[in-house]
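Submission checklist for the structure archive. All mandatory fields must be present; incomplete records are returned to the submitter.

[x] Identifier: TnpV protein
[x] Organism: Lachnospira intestinalis
[x] Residue count: 125
[x] Sequence attached
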Amino acid sequence: MSEETLFEKLGVKYIEKEGIFYPLITLGGEENITDVGKYGRMWMGYIQKEYPQRYRSMVRFGELYVKATEVNEVAYELLEDIENEWLRKHKPKHANSFVEMYQLRTQARMIAEEVVLHDVVNCFH
């Protein structure tokens, strides 16, 4: 009876090539980059450019995509809160005017995105 290897105990799968078994080990992969969202990707670019050592450390320990997803969620929550608050304070003069409401919503989004970029995305987390 053979004893299990450490990889087998951890549930790592193997692939056989020419009679040799190789463990299938990945770092979390670049395929997850699409799952982190708009603000998560922006934050990853910021961290990579401004704090390259921190970026490499997070990649090495598999924390980058988890943190980027968290940043994306926080950013969208803040964005929605700021937009709703701004729209509550700035009512349209003509309630049935599509153009006026569109302009108010666009202005609210621009203000909210500026705050989100400054307070969440372009920050060291």
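[x] Structure attached
Curator remark: Residues 64-89 form the longest helix (26 residues). DSSP finds five helices and two strands in the chain.
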